[in-house]
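ok, trying the design again with the full structure, not the truncated one.
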């Protein structure tokens, strides 16, 4: 139970590689994956977890091996968080940046399509902010997948 069948360094390397690969895949898949999960997004995350579980530990089924991989994943996550606080560029790579979806009452359809945002989501955000389209100053898709609305300034 405590004896590992794989060398400790191999488990650490596997953990780091899987963390980096998943981080890149999540970033490439767009902001919608990072934002509020739909049932389908949750299903994908659960399946990703199952798909990479063997990659993390290889043939090692020991308690120590599993704990070492868990510790590695948490340590890499802490390092990414620390690097994000010290480097704006790294933070933007990891977290993403807001995207302008519309301005002055006009929604940019091409941007919605590029980022796979439905018009219904935009309309819901407008309702949540008690704002009509004609009142919109700027409309942003935030890095976390939320849509934020800035109303026009009164003239």
């Amino acid at each position: 139970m405590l004896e590992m069948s794989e060398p400790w360094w191999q488990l650490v390397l596997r953990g780091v590689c899987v963390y980096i690969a998943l981080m890149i895949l999540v970033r490439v898949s767009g902001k919608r994956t990072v934002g509020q999960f739909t049932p389908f997004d949750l299903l994908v995350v659960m399946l990703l977890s199952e798909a990479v579980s063997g990659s993390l530990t290889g043939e090692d089924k020991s308690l120590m091996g599993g704990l070492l991989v868990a510790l590695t994943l948490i340590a890499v996550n802490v390092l990414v968080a620390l690097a994000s606080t010290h480097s704006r560029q790294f933070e933007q790579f990891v977290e993403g940046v807001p995207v302008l979806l519309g301005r002055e009452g006009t929604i940019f359809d091409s941007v919605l399509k590029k980022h796979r945002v439905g018009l219904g989501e935009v309309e819901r955000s407008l309702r949540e902010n008690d704002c009509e389209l004609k009142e919109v100053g700027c409309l942003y898709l935030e890095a976390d997948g939320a849509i934020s609305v800035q109303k026009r300034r009164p003239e």
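Keeping the full-length input from now on. The radius of gyration is 21 Å.
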